[in-house]
Amino acid sequence: MSGTFVGMPAFPTAARAALADTQLRHNLAHATHTIRDKRARVVGEVEGWEDLRLSGAAVKESALRDLDRHLVELEASLTANGATVHWARDAAEACAIVAEVAKAHGTDEVVKVKSMATQEIGLNEVLAEHGISAWETDLAELIVQLGEDLPSHILVPAIHRNRAEIREIFRDKMAAAGRAAPEDLTDEPAVLAAAARQHLREKFLRAKVGISGANFAVAETGTLVVVESEGNGRMCLTLPEVLVSVVGIEKVVPTWAGLDPLLRLLPRSSTGERMNPYTSTWSGVTPGDGPQEVHVVLLDNGRTRALADQVGRQALRCIRCSACLNVCPVYERVGGHAYGSVYPGPIGAILNPLLKGTGDPQTDSLPYASSLCGACFEVCPVRIDIPEVLVHLRSKVVDGHRDDRVPKPEAAAMRATSYAFSDARRLALAERVSGLAGRVLGRFGRTTLPGGRRAAGRLPGPGSAWTGARDLPAPPAESFRAWWRRTDGGRSSVVEPVETTDGDR
């Protein structure tokens, strides 16, 4: 499992359904515009922002280049600080480790800090199978959990919901999960947040086990770092007796000094803040202060596969800021559910195939969920060239179908083109046919392109889907080869024009 929702359709099918939901599109447009406007203001305050991006990218790239060495150093530092380190090759191993720790302490519930890694491995569902309730304590994650929904954004999982919808979720669902919502609950954001705090406080106070992820893991000092805006993370990290942190191996930062550019880039790129209200760091066990038993699960789950991809490995630099989602014209119109993954948007379109590999129709559709406009690269704080990786992954999807017994229409068209272009006589014949088609289509084309050139209109049959969204210029009435013969290579003193329709000379 690598963060893909089981049973979700391929992106084109899911996107078509999302586009029909006008309320969803309104919610997304309002939220993404608000977040990216905030980001633009605080980024504009930083002199030398591009230099800061380069520094952040260099820190993450340095970690990936010697990841094996840094992971061993991280394990040694954590162990020296009293933590127990576990290694998990995949989702099943990671979930089994967490479940075993929880059962060893006889608990039937745990509280969680917002964590993409635990969502990726489906931890909540596995714990439920063991009779353990996993309570999300981040406000947006709580909304998704109570609403029996799926997250649709890296930073704001409930971005697809408006406040009226959230009020109804709280009124209908809170009582079954603990403290009920107040009778006079309104849809004012402050009132909704207060209801969530009251609901969660009793869970914080009685929980024996807390579960977290980590934004960064410093190999030099064995320090894990979580940045958040609500304070729920601080409660989960300090109140329970036992803390289990599930950390992707790509979260390693070699040195404490390497945190400097990353902690300046992340809040501005994610929440549009100069710094996060809560930055929590912990290094193993401290007697009398915080959890007295700490477990760290270092998670692979496809990351070494991504690391082996020379082009795609840069995706592992991602610091989960979600800036690429907020500027993406595709994400803004279809939302996160269409990607079928806990990692949606541009970064999800490359990260999921890299973690999981190609071959699954849903995953294979994700690299095509982009217009390649490049806005994602422009805002990425660690300079991941997402368009480059998208094109690279598209080539992998195509390569995976080269040996299909029945080729796709596009592949068949490319093979036919290759057959024609590989022989001069076949190419000449194709040009003559093209010239005839140019005269017919140019005369009867239904649209006119800039410069007066006629377009061929919509092709029949399978070609209609392609030309329905593109202008197909009518082929020229005379090929270059024919012009060369007729004019003796342009040396003729008088060159008579070929009889064509207006605009096709």
UniProtKB/TrEMBL annotation:
Chain ranges of the LUD domain: 73-299
Residue numbers spanned by region Disordered: 451-471
Alphabetical UniProt keywords: 4Fe-4S, Electron transport, Iron, Iron-sulfur, Metal-binding, Repeat, Transport
Transmembrane annotation, as ranges: none
Record protein name field: LutB/LldF family L-lactate oxidation iron-sulfur protein
Pfam families xref list: Fer4_8 (PF13183), LUD_dom (PF02589)
Signal peptide: none
Biased composition regions of type Low complexity, renumbered to the chain: 451-463
Organism: Nocardioides koreensis
All residue ranges annotated as the 4Fe-4S ferredoxin-type domain in the record: 315-384
